Amino acid sequence: MKIIDGKKIADSILARLKKEIERRRINPCLAVILVGDNPSSVLYIKAKEKAAEKIGVRIKKFFLPANSSENEILEVIKKLNNNLEINGILVQMPLPKGISPDRIIKEISPEKDVDGLLPKSGFDSPFILSIWEALQATKENLENKKIIALVNSEIFGERLGMFFKKKGLNLKTEARSREADVLITALGQPGVIKGDMVKQGVILIDGGISRVDGRTAGDIDEESVKQKAKWLSPVPGGLGPLTVAFLLKNLI
User: Fold this and answer.
1) How far is CA 159 from CA 11, 18, 95, in A?
2) Sequence-separated (6 or more) residues with CB below 8 Å from residue 105
3) pLDDT, tens digit, for every residue of 109-163?
4) pLDDT at 185 over 80
5) Residue 152: CA atoms inside 13 Å, Cβ hemisphere, count?
6) 107 and 150 housed in the same domain
7) Residue among 105, 94, 98, 90 nearest 39 (CA)
8) Element (H or E) spanning 240, and its range?
9) In total, how many domains does the chain have?
10) Residue range of the domain that includes 157
């Protein structure tokens, strides 16, 4: 089994972005909104901060208590939309129960939706871009391959399918994992995909991130699939660093 080194690819992207910032003499600024203190969310923000600092991007954090109302969050977004210093706005998911992600996200200005969540956003989703970049890193011919995505969001599944369609490829979200030549997961269920659930020679793209006993875990049980998989993007070190790199690329 070959490993897709997302961190190495991301470092290369970040190096190019740093040169672009210096060449254009710009001072990009990303606003990050966190509601509550979800440990995984705090970890994600730290990863974004570390990458941003490396290339000269400023991050302004807006931490709100978990009991904040939707209107209080929307007020922060409204101010950031009107702040010319802010180039991009990111609302860290998940939001606390009782708060509608759709209502919050749709208030972000499309010009500042660097997470690519809005239908009218000018940006592709960094997560989807990271999936595609990981697949490109394998240099495998994807034509006539059966590509299956197991996802926990119907909307995300539709957007992923549309992206692949633009690339001339067909992606299915309702199929058995054993049928896949390429299996993409975004379930957030640690170790749910076992070796007996995949076919020999499969390409595995693990986009599920969970925290288990203080460590980061993906959807795929790496130990049990290693005798079958041809390629694996691991967790950690796979899509995570790539997603951060593409987020900053959108911002710039």
Assistant:
1) 26, 29, 21
2) 91, 113, 117, 118
3) 999 999 998 888 889 999 999 999 999 999 999 999 999 999 988 888 999 999 9
4) yes
5) 10
6) no
7) 94
8) helix 239-251
9) 2
10) 126-240
